[in-house]
Amino acid sequence: MAALAAASSPPTPPLSPVEATSSLIAASRYAISLVSPEYLNDTYAEYFTDTTSPPAPCSPLSLSRIAVRTRFFDTVLSQTLPHVAQILILAAGCDMRAYRLPIPPELPIFEVDLPSVITYKQRVLSTIPALPPRNVTHVSLDLISPSFLQTLAATTSFDPTKPTLILAEGLLYYFPPPQASSTLAQLAILPSSLLCFSAVSPPASTTSKSRSLGELFKWRTNDPAETARSAGWTYSRAFTYRDKPGGCDSYLETLSPPLPNQPSPTSTFYTIATTSPLLFTPFSPPSLPPPKPLPNNTTCAVIVCGKALVDCVATAELEGRVERAVQLCDGLRDGGCNVTLILSGGRGEAEEMQRVLDGMKNSTTVACVEKGSNTTRQNAVECKKLVGDTVTMVYVVTSGYHVKRAVHVFKREWRAGIEVEGYGDFWTVGEKVQKHEDGHRDRPPDSEVGASVE
């Protein structure tokens, strides 16, 4: 950050608090560009950096969070660009994504923010030489208004009937929860559109710092993907660098790898929500490799182990297990196998998995439901009763960290000679397995406490 003090930029009048926040984010992007230009190269950020006073302190974690977030939103824009007719950037601040990324000059881009921020940005833009041609419209609006979208359409050429990429970077967590939810719902009416937004999780403990952030960050969630679905977005997926609830996985690293030699942010979610299967495809869970070839008419069982419900509803992790099981069943049937799908879990887990299965579009898979199991051993024993000795191959679908242990339990409880393979769900980070020579089970991480374990 020391390099920031030496940077040259045109003198500007004193900044308002909102403008100063936007300028600080720009200064962080500029600092990242100086240190790791191969990761993020925002050459325009210098013009928004206030060099008339010493730079504000910015921790490595804060820099890393801004870097990862910027890279993620850049990647989403690049992958979605061919499929949208316009771009809507909410709380655009000092972001120069419209100019620094290769966007067709004729594509309409609408940057929305508070009047003071728009005025400040336009003033700085007038000092930047040789900006590439772009079709950018700057719009002064209060985004917390319940009718901001109607106002936008009425006062600009924004067309709410066209497919739109909506970027809400670093915005929604400043809204009170009702306004955050209503904004998500208001945007969901745009047809064949994709929304990318960031969210933060509740603090793990109450400290003076967390209380301070609590006053700043009003809307927090551990499951932004489910929040988006509840607001009317058909498909949604959240990404983070931590293994916690909320439908998140390490696929984030393929979209936005961590900043080299810096700590990875662990409390922030980056979320994709859309009503279009086409737009969701680049961000959907990676496909399973095809099951290894088996002789025709091999009889297989695909068993989904349950997981504790939250408020009597399946979590994103449990939904991910059902999705992976269906994908696995389809692959086995394509290979000529006879497949039985079993949804196994007590305390309402099996019924919830059946509900998820019933709600999956384009799926003709029919499942058996086993409702009495509360541990992995019970999953194995009770499912064996359902199919007897008729199967020669068993696939166990569970959380990523639990796969190896589940396979061991199933092999122990089923007859000798049967082959068992394990598959992790879409939503857990890696296979966090620790082997203990004494045979005792591993203690599950916090995200799995209360799930079906032995």
Q: Strand sequence of the main sheet, in spatial order?
A: 3-2-1-4-5-7-6
- Total domains, how many? 2
* Share of helical residues: 25-40%
Largest sheet, in brief, is: 7 strands, mixed
Strands, total number? 12
Classified by CATH, the class of the largest domain is Alpha Beta
Number of helices: 15
Fold-level CATH name of the largest domain: Rossmann fold
How big a fraction of the residues is strand? 15-25%
What distance separates the N and C termini? 51 Å
CATH architecture heading of the largest domain: 3-Layer(aba) Sandwich
Going by CATH, what is the homologous superfamily of the largest domain?
Answer: Vaccinia Virus protein VP39
> Would you tell me the overall average pLDDT?
79
Shape assignment: elongated
How many whole angstroms does the radius of gyration measure?
25 Å
Low-confidence stretches at least 5 residues in length (pLDDT < 50)?
Answer: 1-12, 205-214, 243-250, 427-454
| Helix and strand composition category | alpha/beta
Query: What sequence of helices (H) and strands (E) makes up the elements?
Result: HHHEHEHEHEHEHHEHEHEHEHEHEHE
Short description:
By secondary structure, the protein is of the alpha/beta class. The protein has 15 helices and 12 strands.
What does this protein structure show overall?
With 454 residues, the chain is an alpha/beta fold. The chain has two domains: 2-283, Vaccinia Virus protein VP39 (Rossmann fold, 3-Layer(aba) Sandwich); 299-448, Rossmann fold, CATH 3.40.50. It is built from 15 helices and twelve strands. Strand 4 (164-168), helix 7 and strand 5 form a beta-alpha-beta unit. The radius of gyration is 25 Å and the shape is elongated.
